[in-house]
Amino acid sequence: MAETADRAALAEKIDPELLHMLAAMPRRQQRQVLLLLMVVENLLYEMMRERRMREDIE
Questions:
Q1: pTM of the predicted model over 0.70
Q2: In sequence order, which ranges of the chain are alpha helices (DSSP H)?
Q3: Is-contact 21 13, C-beta < 8 A?
Q4: 3-22 per-residue burial string, b: 16 or more CB within 10 A, e: under 16
C-alpha cells in the first residue's frame, strides 16, 4: 500500500510536457518506453539491495 502511495507521489512530479510527448507517441513506442523504465527501476532496486547487503556484512 505504501508503494502505491510512493508511486502516486512520484507520478505527480513527472513533467507534464513529458507526459504530453509520451501521449503523442504510438502505442508501440509507449510500451517500449515503459519497458525501459521498468528495467531501470529493477536495476536500481537490485543495486540498492546489494548495497544494503554489503552494509549489513560490514
A1: no
A2: 2-13, 16-24, 27-57
A3: no
A4: eeeeeeeeeeeeeeeeeeee
Question: How far apart, in whole angstroms, are the C-alpha atoms of residue 22 and residue 17?
Answer: 9
Q: How far apart, in Å, are the Cα atoms of 8 and each of 4, 15, 18, 30, 49? A: 6, 14, 16, 19, 22
Q: CA separation (Å) from 14 to 11, 17, 19?
A: 5, 9, 7
What is the chain's pLDDT, residue by residue, as a tens digit (58 residues)? 556 677 677 777 778 888 888 889 999 999 999 899 899 999 999 999 999 999 988 7
